[in-house]
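TL;DR need C-alpha cells for one chain.
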Amino acid sequence: MSDRAFVQRLRTSGGPSHELLVLLGEHRILTTDQLAWATGAPVRTVRHRLDRLRTASLVDAVRPGRESGSAPRHWWLRIAGARLVAGTAAAPGRQRPSGLHVAHAAAIGEVWLAVRDHGPAAGLALRRWWSDRAGWQEWESTRSGNGTRTRRLTPDAVLLVDVDHAGVIGTAAAFVEVDLATMSQAVLRETAYWDRVRQFADVCAAGEQVARLLDAPAAAQLLAHWPPATRHRLLDDDPDVVDALLAWWADRDNPVLTDHARTVLVDRHAAAWTAQAEQLLAATGHGDHPRLRAAAAALQTGRLLDGTWSTSCAGRPRAPRSRPRRRHSRTTGPYATTRSPRSGPRWAGGPAAAPPPPNSAPTTTATT
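>> reply
TL;DR here they are.
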C-alpha cells in the first residue's frame, strides 16, 4: 500500500495506528513501551505500526543521547501527523526536540499512565488529563485602583480525578509538575537572576502606576531615571530597593510592604537628587551656561535630571590650541617642493603669494 493510500485510510477509517497518533497528539512524546502500555497491544506490534507511520512521515523518533543499542525510542508527531489528528491545515507539529525535552515529556507521560492504572487502588479514578499547553491556566485579575492584569499558570499537566475517601466520592483537580533535577545550581541561579531582571523591568515600565499606588510622585521619576540598559546592575549594586519593589509588586494589598517600598523609593530619590545638586554646584565655575540654568530650574522643582546630563556637557572652556612648529629636515625637502606651486619659494625662504580667502568675491578697480 502506498503512503498516500495509507494516510487516506487512517483519515477515513481510523484504527489502531490512528489511535497511536491521537495519543501522541495528547501527550506530545511517548516511548514505544508507553504506547504499548496505553493501548494494551504487544510491544512488537506497536513497533511495527510506528515504523509504518514513520515511513509515511507522520511521526518521528529519537533515542536521547544514543542512537544505537537498546535504549527506547521516543516518538512524537510530525506536522503531517498533527494535521491528520487535528483535522485542520494548521496544527502544531514538532521538529527534532532536544534530549532534555524528550526525557521530560516522557516522564510526564509516565505519570499519566501511573495515575490511570494504579490510581484506583489508592482511591483515585482518572477522569481527564491535559498535558502541556492544554493544561495551562490563564485569567484576568482586577484590583481596585490597579487595573487588569493577565495571570498564567504553566504546569506540566493538569489532572481531574474522582476521589474515594471513606465511601464518599468527590471530584478534585491537581497540577502536575515533573522535576528531573537536570539543572545544575549554576543554571538555576542564572535562571532565577534573569527572572528577577524581567520582573524588575516590568515594575520600572509601570512607573506611573507605581507612583499612583504608592502615592509618591518621586517613585515614577526615580524609575524613569534608571537607564534600561544598565538597570539590571541594581540587582547587585542596590538589592534592597529591588527586593522591596518586587515584594510589594507581588502583594500590593499588603500595607507593610507598601510602606516599605514607598520609603525606599523616596529615600533613593532624595539621594539621587542630592548627588545631582552637588554636581551642579561644582559646575558653577564653568560660567553662565544655558544647560546649567535649565538643570538648576529642573532641580528646583524636585525633578531628577535624565541620565544623559552631566557637567561635562555644560560648556567647560577649552584650552587654546597651540600650533605645532614646522620642522625642517632633509627628508621633507623634495616633498615640500612638489606639494604646491607656492611650496618651492616658501621652503627656499622667498616670498610666497598669499592664498585668497575662501569664498572671497573678485576685486575690481573703479576708474573715473
